[in-house]
Amino acid sequence: MTHWIKGWLAVIAIATPVAAAADAGPTLRSDSTSEVIVAAANVVRPVLRPEGVQRASERLAASDAGFRTWIAGFRSRAIVAGIRKPTLDAAFAGVRYDAGVIRRDRNQSEFSKQIWDYLDTAVSPARVANGRKALDHNSAALDQIEARFGVDKEVVAAIWGLESAFGAVRGGEPLIGSLATLAYDGRRGEFFEEQLVAALKIVQAGDVAPRAMTGSWAGAMGHTQFMPTSYLSHAVDFTGDGRRDIWSEDPTDALASTAAYLKHFGWTKGQPWGVEVRLPASFDPSLARRALTRNPAEWANEGVRDTAGRKVPNYGRASILLPGGSDGPAFMIFDNFAVIERYNKADAYVIGVGHLSDRLKGGPAIQAEWPRQHRAISASQRKEIQRRLQRRGFGVEKIDGIIGPNTIDAIRAFQKSAGLGADGFPTQDLLTALGR
Ligand SMILES: [Ca+2]
């Protein structure tokens, strides 16, 4: 689970911190919305750059001293939050500052991955095949989970596939040390301190021993990568042994917890996340925005059809989404799309989960071609687009390189004024069209 601001190129969560903050939704990289997502499917953790051993060890020593002092202060705050001293003693035994965690936290890519590149990995033929095997091997548990929570088992399995490659890559970092390091580091200190306190509550409740409590470097735990606060709010003991065990080889509790999480946020059984559609040539791309919802019948009146040319059944109100701009596939998306967003806000992630689940149900690949000719644009190019929009009087609030709703609206306004299709999609061509 990760939190990304909605944006076109939101793609890459190398080391996606699944952070579903209790009720606020998954919030991991909450303030780092410029990061791209790409839960590079099999890459839960990025590879570290090699670095001089000497330098690293010097820095580690300096940081470790500060870290010790920080822990002493943190212990008082944790006790106020209800953590008992023996829990703290056990949890912090042998915990050290972890410079590798901070390196990973700082390791941001300048380039966003395009959604099609992300999906090539996220829903690769191997991923689909492994998913079918995983569904097969866990069919009894998944059927019971579906019956209990009313969440399609293929959707639960798809999240499992994207978060940990069906349990193969769950993250082996000792959680208390990673979270304490990130909380001490302070870039998102408040968020990680909250996660650390939640992790200690989990240990205190006896669900897992401190040493066995492992996760990604950024605190996402188990088969479906729950952040500690999400775990406290949503994890369930489905096996009935009294422990909510999302760390063990047996994925049952983790999968049930994911279903419980989606149910909590309003999953509608039987409703698709989205349906690939064909738009008529006359379709105005400015209608493709989340805020504009219509019934499928109303969309049908606009000429919107599924890929077989049929009207889309009435699953509820829907928006049209053009995740690769006007030149790429179009989807009619329903409320369940927003439920999957509770795991990770990026369109690429949600479509990855949704499409993988469709494939696990036996559905076809996405039919329309992606506009693969569009090269990824860098963070500095995204800022340059914002600067040029601003200069031309198309209100961009902040030059931050984040293509969020505000920037997308400004792009659409510019496109309209220039007689271009207003799809709001940032490309190299757009940058050129904006002039200097
Ligand atoms: Ca259990």
Description:
It is built from 17 helices and eight strands. It is mainly α. The chain has a domain at 379-433. The strands form three sheets. The chain has a four-stranded antiparallel beta sheet with strand order 6-5-8-7. A hairpin with a 3-residue loop joins strand 1 and strand 2 (25-26). Helix 7 packs across helix 11 and helix 7 packs across helix 14. Residues 3-54 have low confidence and may be disordered.
Write the layout of secondary structure elements.
Elements: E1 20-21, E2 25-26, H1 53-80, H2 85-92, H3 99-106, H4 115-122, H5 125-137, H6 139-149, H7 153-164, E3 173-174, H8 175-185, H9 189-204, E4 214-215, H10 228-234, H11 252-264, E5 274-278, H12 296-301, E6 305-306, E7 319-321, E8 330-333, H13 335-340, H14 347-360, H15 379-391, H16 405-417, H17 428-433
Antiparallel strand pairs: 1-2, 3-4, 5-6, 5-8, 7-8
Helix pairs in contact: 3-8, 4-14, 5-7, 6-11, 7-11, 7-14, 8-9, 9-10
The structure holds calcium ion (CA).
Calcium ion binds near residues 241 and 243.
